[in-house]
Please model this.
Amino acid sequence: MNWFRKPKYTTLTVSPPQIKPPSNIWVKCDGCGELIYKNELENNFMVCIKCNFHFRLSAKERIKITLDKGSFKEDFTEIHPVDFLGFYDTKGYNERLIEASKNTGCSDAIVCGYGKIDKKPVAIGVMDFSFMGGSMGSVVGEKITLLVEKATESKIPLIIFSSSGGARIQEGMVSLIQMAKTSGAISYFKKNGGFYLSALTDPTTGGVAASFALLGDIIIAEPKALIGFAGPRVIEQTIRQHLPSGFQTSEFLLSHGIIDMVVERKNLKKTISSLLTFFS
Ligand SMILES: [Zn+2]
Model:
């Protein structure tokens, strides 16, 4: 009898909708894991209100909070990177350059130019970590060298904000030469009485830490920034010893006399301005 037969039901399993916080309103803090209002974060120099974690800034954001409003004039915009080795790993170097340029709006991992801090003129270079890990290739080296030469000629102080994973592998040996090139230019600048303030932000490592970043007359760093040459794991494997806690942070380097000051982002402009006045 048909009416006694149970209808065949199939059970549908529906997974609950994944609710993700909209990234244009909320940001998850990498320091404490809390969700923070993006607006609140932006009004606090991109520093977490709850745990003081300093988010990475793009070159443009850094320039905006450091220089006097409307005073920045970018230079060397005509210099662009070229894939002279035809380098290919999982992607071609050219493809990576186009992608990075599209995502950051920069032509390479540094923006250089001139501006004013509390009306004091400066030559400034700001690295952008989001452009291929802030890696230093021939363009970064050339832009820094030209900036240092212009600062020498114009007798104005030089400020470089570093944020880099090191040399750019896609340019092979040419990227390593930039260490000597930038260091040479800075040495000439200093011999001619120039004042160089190096500001280290998270992370400053590899060839950048081993050249111009640690050559400042004054070296300041943001709290808890990773600063060092090789990564801690590589060092531990090489020397077969455990590293002390906090190794390669700004605070550790300050306590060992490698850097001069650890300055919170909200106090950076004020501090740089006082240093410029003192050393002029
Ligand atoms: Zn936090």
Q: What stands out?
A: Strands lie at 26-28, 35-37, 73-74, 110-117, 120-127, 158-164, 196-205, 218-221, 227-228, 261-262. The chain has two domains: 21-55, 56-279. Residues 21-55 form one domain. The first strand starts at residue 26 and ends at 28.
